[in-house]
């Protein structure tokens, strides 16, 4: 295949897809003449190579007629990289010849395209040519982008010091030519706001024009759009309300992974790989390892990952995707740092652990009460036949009494609103949707006075959940419902600051998910957005009904879940295995229909997927008629090793039907191999699947005869390949109706359950937070009781002078009252090392606010840093170290700043981090604070 053929048959059509007409010389010039001399080559420090021609294969022109890009083409059977240096020399020579800007560099063999932004970034493989608008945008950004070290950060969007450090970390790395970043920030610390402030700065700095924010659920898309609307109201966003068609004239795009995958695969809506300048991947520990990683590969952009997963448990794949060497993210800010900050940025939490008798000891004759046993006998049931483990609750057996007990305990122990009657906003994490509905029924039964509005099931497949006025919107913005009962949907990402209770009514085995779920309650209230049903929030309560905290103490990283092979990959692999069996048996009745399935599966591979485009030569090889004419073991090996993995690109199909088809192919193989044990196990599973098809649905009822026959032993004892094919054809499309029917198979009881264990667990960064809070409450209650009896306290309240003798008397009295109130204890619980007893009393009585030294220092540093938005990451780190040093030591001398611990930042201490003027400014600032 010649270079000319490659250009005409492949590259010309690729350019046309990007909007370039190679026959229009106002857009594209082929065989662009370049004047090259030996002196030119020496100027650009390149080896002197005589090429066969002095013509560039393609030059793409801007609207002003000047060269925007050079494309060097090589024939498709050679490595595209052969044209790299030639393309580079052409770019420099064209710049010298035309006197304009340096053109962008492309080199390709038709199958692989490489883009080189000379003098800025190394070459990078791309999956299509840019449009003229893309290249004009690239040129504009290259021409006008500013130095980011001086770029202003809008602290009204993200003004906390760690947010500023995160933004500066990315900006400094961008200046160093990096293009992939990972921010690890605890849930509730404002990841989205940090990104919005970063996008704002990069747009103003001329580094980006179009940004894509990727999320994994529709609810999170709406939440992110609201955040962009609030903080960047003048930037046009996509999608607008009820907008479904992709628009190319916006600057901010917020999309789910499936939507964006459809956009880039759909020929009608397809967008250029160069359309975006920045992609932000929200919660990047999920969803991006199989099908959806294709989105990141497709676009030629700066890529920023966000995750709340603690650094020590982030999957290595995440670090690889974002080019983080040695497992170090671009920036990290932990939950502990946020809670320990003064004042705290996130809520600490208390945990109450409860266990019921049935959960611990199971449901059996020994644990069922005598009263319930009598009822069973009257109903003609055998008590001895009931025997379930506690772990089987809501899986094999349902006991209403256990769920009722959990609901009652929650209502008793939950943090209430200011009226002390109803629980604050709460999320119940349930095992299944059926479990969630049962919990909802119990709330309605126990508390009918709230007419079904107190607790609502909020799950992803309920259309009533979404949109303005939907269930999620009601939970966020209205007094009722107070309790959201959910399965998976509210586990991650949902931002409701007013949540004061979380109920773990299910076991959790993923450490990442566990902390995501806890993160639903960690946010503090915004003082300017206080809602009537939640006027204050210092901490939140977790009711753990399944020993999750104990599990993660014993298994800090949770279960090691094996990465699952995608269902389409498994199904294709089974068909290849069946082909091998047919080949070995030389049975045409097996070979021919299986071969048809394999061919159809290959034909259905999404050719627009970049994974398939990368492997197009392999796909074309198996699509050739000759490949299947004579099957050999080598060809079967090729199908397994080279073609089977490509099926991970399959999306948007009926996976329930595919799962049933996979089960049928498996039992077919077991039957052919005469594996009776496996055949029997698969048969029982398939019969169970078929039995769960609801005949009350008309579409299902049409196949009633086959459904009933397929549940008989005779049907399976006389099974044939034809019968199995018929099952797939007739019943696989009906599997969509199975959802929710499994609950009919569970044993249902309403036995009285009792609490076996109920304890408060002190947990979280503060360790003794609960006891300190309780001590504060006891002190405040005692002071208010004594106020009416002690004249000296009344004097303090009225701000009247008191003598030293009176102070000694009240000191002695309080130290001998319960709860043993002393100045030392008060200093400990109120975190103030210097205040006197009278100051504490005034604080308790609400006469004056007692601001401790750490709070004063922290506020001052926050203000100082917010007013210095051009600080580098190293300078910010130095100031935070200085803040910590000042809080611990109480003062700082000039000599301290050039010795440890400040020499950790720079060997010369402050002198190596700040210039003279800024250094004097800092010294004046800390002297004023310590004065």
Automatic annotation (TrEMBL):
Per its UniProt record, what Pfam families does this chain match?
EcoEI_R_C, Helicase_C, HSDR_N, ResIII
GO cellular component entries: cytosol
Instruction: Enumerate the GO terms in the molecular function aspect.
Output: ATP binding; DNA binding; helicase activity; type I site-specific deoxyribonuclease activity
Q: Where is the Helicase ATP-binding domain?
A: 172-328
Q: Per UniProt, which keywords does this protein have?
A: ATP-binding, Helicase, Hydrolase, Nucleotide-binding
Q: Which domain of life is it from?
A: Bacteria
One of the GO BP terms on file:
DNA restriction-modification system
Q: Which Gene3D superfamilies match?
A: 3.90.1570.30, P-loop containing nucleotide triphosphate hydrolases (3.40.50.300)
Q: Which InterPro entries match?
A: EcoEI_R_C_dom, Helicase/UvrB_N, Helicase_ATP-bd, Helicase_C-like, Helicase_Restrict-Modif_Enz, P-loop_NTPase, Restrct_endonuc_type1_HsdR_N
Q: List the PANTHER family hit by this protein, alphabetically.
A: ATP-DEPENDENT HELICASE IRC3-RELATED, TYPE I RESTRICTION ENZYME ECOKI R PROTEIN
Tell me what this protein is called: DEAD/DEAH box helicase family protein
Q: From which source organism is this entry? A: Pedobacter sp. KACC 23697
């Amino acid at each position: 295949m010649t270079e000319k053929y490659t250009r005409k048959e492949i590259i010309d059509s690729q350019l046309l897809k990007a909007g370039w007409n190679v026959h229009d010389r106002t857009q594209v010039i082929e065989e662009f003449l370049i004047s090259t001399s030996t002196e030119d080559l020496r100027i650009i420090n390149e080896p002197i190579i005589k090429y066969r021609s002095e013509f560039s294969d393609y030059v793409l022109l801007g609207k002003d007629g000047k060269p925007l890009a050079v494309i060097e083409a090589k024939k498709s059977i050679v490595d595209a990289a052969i044209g790299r240096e030639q393309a580079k020399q052409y770019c420099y020579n064209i710049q010298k010849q035309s006197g304009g800007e340096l053109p962008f560099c492309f080199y390709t063999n038709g199958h692989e395209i490489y883009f080189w932004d000379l003098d800025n970034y190394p070459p990078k493989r791309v999956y299509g040519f840019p449009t003229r608008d893309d290249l004009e945008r690239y040129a504009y950004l290259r021409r006008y982008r500013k130095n980011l070290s001086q770029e202003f950060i809008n602290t009204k969007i993200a003004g906390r010091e760690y947010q500023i450090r995160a933004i500066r970390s990315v900006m400094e790395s961008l200046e160093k030519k990096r293009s992939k970043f990972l921010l690890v920030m605890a849930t509730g610390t404002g990841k989205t706001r940090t990104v919005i402030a970063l996008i704002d700065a990069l747009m103003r700095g001329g580094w980006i024009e179009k940004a894509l924010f990727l999320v994994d659920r529709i609810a999170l898309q709406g939440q992110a759009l609201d955040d962009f609307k609030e903080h960047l109201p003048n930037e046009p966003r996509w999608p607008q309300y009820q907008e479904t068609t992709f628009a190319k004239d916006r600057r901010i795009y917020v999309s789910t992974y499936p939507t964006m995958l459809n956009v880039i695969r759909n020929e009608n809506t397809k967008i250029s790989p160069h359309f975006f300048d920045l992609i932000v991947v929200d919660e990047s520990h999920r969803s991006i390892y199989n099908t959806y990683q294709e989105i990141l590969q497709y676009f030629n952009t700066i890529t920023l990952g966000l995750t709340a997963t603690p650094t020590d448990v982030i999957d290595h794949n995440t670090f690889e995707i974002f080019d983080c060497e040695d497992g170090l993210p671009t920036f990290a800010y932990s939950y502990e740092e946020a809670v320990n900050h003064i004042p705290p940025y996130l809520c600490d939490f208390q945990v109450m652990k409860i266990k019921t008798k049935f959960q611990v000891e199971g449901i059996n004759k020994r644990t069922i009460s005598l009263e319930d046993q009598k009822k069973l006998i009257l109903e003609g049931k055998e008590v001895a036949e009931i025997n379930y483990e506690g772990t089987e609750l809501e899986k094999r057996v349902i006991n209403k009494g256990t769920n009722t007990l959990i609901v009652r305990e929650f209502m008793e122990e939950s943090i209430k609103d200011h009226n002390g009657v109803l629980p604050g906003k709460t999320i119940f994490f349930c095992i299944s949707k059926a479990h969630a509905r049962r919990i909802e029924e119990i709330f309605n039964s126990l508390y009918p006075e709230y007419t079904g509005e107190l607790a609502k099931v909020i799950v992803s497949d309920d259309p009533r959940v979404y949109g303005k006025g939907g269930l999620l919107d009601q939970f966020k913005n209205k007094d009722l419902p107070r309790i959201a009962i959910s399965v998976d949907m509210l586990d991650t990402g949902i931002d409701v600051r007013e949540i004061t209770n979380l109920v773990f009514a299910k076991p959790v085995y993923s450490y990442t998910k566990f902390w995501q779920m806890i993160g639903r309650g960690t946010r503090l209230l915004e003082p300017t957005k206080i809602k009537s049903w939640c006027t204050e929030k210092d901490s939140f309560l977790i009711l753990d009904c399944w020993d999750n905290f104990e599990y993660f103490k014993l298994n800090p990283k949770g279960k090691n879940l094996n990465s699952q092979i995608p269902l389409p990959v498994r199904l294709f692999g089974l068909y290849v295995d069946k082909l091998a069996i047919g080949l070995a048996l030389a049975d045409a009745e097996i070979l021919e229909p299986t071969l048809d399935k394999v061919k159809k599966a290959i034909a259905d591979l999404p050719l627009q997927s970049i994974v398939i485009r990368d492997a197009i030569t392999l796909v074309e090889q198996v699509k050739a008629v000759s490949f299947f004419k004579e099957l050999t073991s080598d060809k079967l090996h090729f199908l397994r090793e080279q073609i089977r993995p490509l099926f991970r690109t399959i999306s948007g199909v009926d996976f329930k039907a595919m799962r049933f088809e996979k089960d049928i192919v498996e039992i077919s193989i077991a039957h052919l191999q005469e594996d009776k044990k496996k055949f029997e196990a698969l048969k029982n599973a398939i019969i169970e699947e078929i039995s769960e098809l609801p005949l009350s649905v008309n579409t299902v009822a049409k196949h009633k005869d086959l459904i009933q026959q397929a549940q008989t032993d005779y049907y399976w004892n006389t099974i044939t390949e034809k019968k199995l094919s018929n099952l797939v054809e007739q019943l696989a499309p009906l599997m969509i109706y199975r959802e929710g029917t499994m609950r009919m198979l569970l044993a249902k009881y309403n036995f009285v359950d009792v609490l076996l264990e109920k304890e408060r667990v002190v947990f979280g960064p503060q360790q003794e937070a609960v006891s300190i809070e309780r001590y504060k409450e006891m002190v405040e209650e005692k002071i208010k009781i004594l106020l009416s009896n002690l004249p000296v306290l009344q004097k303090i309240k009225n701000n009247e002078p008191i003598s030293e003798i009176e102070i000694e008397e009240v000191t002695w009295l309080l130290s001998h009252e319960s709860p043993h109130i002393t100045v030392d204890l008060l200093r400990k619980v109120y975190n103030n090392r210097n205040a006197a007893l009278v100051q504490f009393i005034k604080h308790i009585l609400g006469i004056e606010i007692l601001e401790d030294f750490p709070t004063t220092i922290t506020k001052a540093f926050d203000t100082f840093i917010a007013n210095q938005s051009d600080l580098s990451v190293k300078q910010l780190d130095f100031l935070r170290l200085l803040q910590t040093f000042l809080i611990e030591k109480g003062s700082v001398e000039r000599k301290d700043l050039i010795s440890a611990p400040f020499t950790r930042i720079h060997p010369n201490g402050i002198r190596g981090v700040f210039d003279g003027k800024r250094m004097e400014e800092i010294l004046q600032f800390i002297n004023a604070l310590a004065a």
